[in-house]
Design brief:
Blueprint: E1 5-9, E2 16-20, H1 25-38, H2 42-77, H3 85-96, H4 106-120, H5 130-140
Antiparallel strand pairs: 1-2
Helix pairs in contact: 2-5
Subcellular location: Membrane
Keywords: Membrane, Transmembrane, Transmembrane helix
InterPro entries: EF_hand_dom, FUN14
Length: 141
Amino acid sequence: NNPHHHYHNNNNKNKNTMVENKPDAVEKALATLKPALSKLTFGGFMGFCSGYASKKLGKAIAFTIGLAFLGLQGMVATGYISIDWMKVKDDAIKAADTDGDGQLTVDDAKEYWRRLRVVLTNKLPDAGGFSIGFLYGVKSG
């Protein structure tokens, strides 16, 4: 009799189900990931979840903007409306430009990240791992 196997009788003598005590795929994966998981902080986990959600939200926003652009350009092409895209661009840059240089640059992106990080890590325990978790979440999303 193998000590690693248990047989359960489901009140039907013809149907025995074997449940093995050896590690399954999830247990093996957890054992492999144990060193990384032991370093996972609450802040890092929240960062991962926030990054994952941000990527999904970003895709939805990009889809919506793209769909609106397609519709607007279709109406421009058929003569229903006229759009001054240069004015749209200038107004968008003016609204999003954090340093007032008239351009959207990496410095603007850094400033938006700083602002977002301050909000998302406010009073968050173990916030040190938040940023790396966020990046991994964006990559995984």
